[in-house]
Amino acid sequence: MSTSHLMLGLLSTGPKHGYDLKRAHDERLPQAKPLAFGQVYATLGRLERDGLVEQTGQDRDGGPDRTTYAITDAGREKLGEWLAAVEPPAPYVNSILFAKVVVSLLASGVTAATDYLVAQRTAHTTRMRELTVVKTTRDSTAGDVVAADYAIAHLDADLRWLQATLLRVADLHREVTA
């Protein structure tokens, strides 16, 4: 995820200060990794430097000064380009799960890799159950449900891979240790 593009998208609905941007992120992307305030302000600084946002004022609201930012025309153009660009499928297998299985086979053998795969399958299944609860809770927002659906689909793909790998672990061990 591009934090810069996300900030531009959040600012496209109107001027906001950093606190509002963090809150909007957490509300709109409830299952995403929360943004740190430092990340929000560092990103705003880069966006301002690049002419994609501009300061539009300051307010105090009973606390410290808060600088309000608005998206510029250049920022809207950059956001539009990003939104229109199709994301290519990942060209490489870049998964900690995959790496751990291969390294486990190299370092510890079939039993350790099998134990890892079984434990990981249990963790994935547990997380899927948690996300299913999120989807079926009465006060879940549409954002909660969409995020849970996305995560469940990815967990399901991982679970299918974990099961297939469990069936092939002995063959894989022979390949990686040859």
Task: Please provide a written account of the structure.
The protein is mainly alpha-helical and 178 residues long. It contains seven helices and three strands; from the N terminus they run H-E-H-H-E-E-H-H-H-H. It has helices at 3-11, 18-28, 37-49, 73-84, 96-107, 110-136, 142-176; strands at 16-17, 53-59, 66-71. It has a three-stranded antiparallel β-sheet.
Q: How would you characterize the largest beta sheet?
A: 3 strands, antiparallel
Q: H/E series, N to C?
A: HEHHEEHHHH
Question: What oligomeric state do these chains adopt?
Answer: single chain
**How do the strands of the widest beta sheet line up side by side?**
1-3-2
In terms of DSSP E residues, the strand content is 5-15%
Beta strands, count: 3
Average pLDDT, all residues:
88
